[in-house]
Amino acid sequence: MDKPHVLDILAKKQGCFVSDLRLNPINRRAALADLLLLDDSAYRQKEWREAATYLLGKPIPDGIEEMKRLISRETEG
Predict the structure, then answer these.
(1) Among candidates 42, 46, 41, which has minimal Cα distance to 10?
(2) What is the pLDDT of residue 24?
(3) Are 53 and 7 in contact (CB under 8 A)?
(4) What whole-number distance in Å separates Cα of residue 3 and Cα of residue 68?
């Protein structure tokens, strides 16, 4: 059986639908924080990028470390 998509895991952890991760600011911030805590090798780079792009609503650079830096900057404020 295939591993669930990272967005599905984040939604389950928040007890919401995937769409709520983007639409609800509280769920979005929590999902971004959870994404930062994941081990870099937990998911393929493609899934990292899809999740970060979906949650942030903008293009994301290549590389998991660069994605994590961008997410950190976005969640600091």
Answers:
(1) 42
(2) 96
(3) no
(4) 22
Rounded CA-CA distance 41/17 in Å is: 25
Task: For residues 11 and 30, give the distance between their C-alpha atoms in angstroms, rounded to a whole number.
Answer: 10
In the chain, what are the domain boundaries? 6-76
SS (H, E, C) 11-63: HHHHCCCHHHHHHCHHHHHHHHHHHHHCCHHHCCHHHHHHHHHHHHCCCCCCC
CB contact at 8 A, 56 and 74: yes
pLDDT attached to residue 77: 62
- Could you tell me the pTM of the whole model? 0.88
pLDDT in tens, 4-57: 999 999 999 999 999 999 999 999 999 999 999 999 898 998 999 999 999 999
Q: Residue 31: CA atoms inside 13 Å, Cβ hemisphere, count?
A: 29
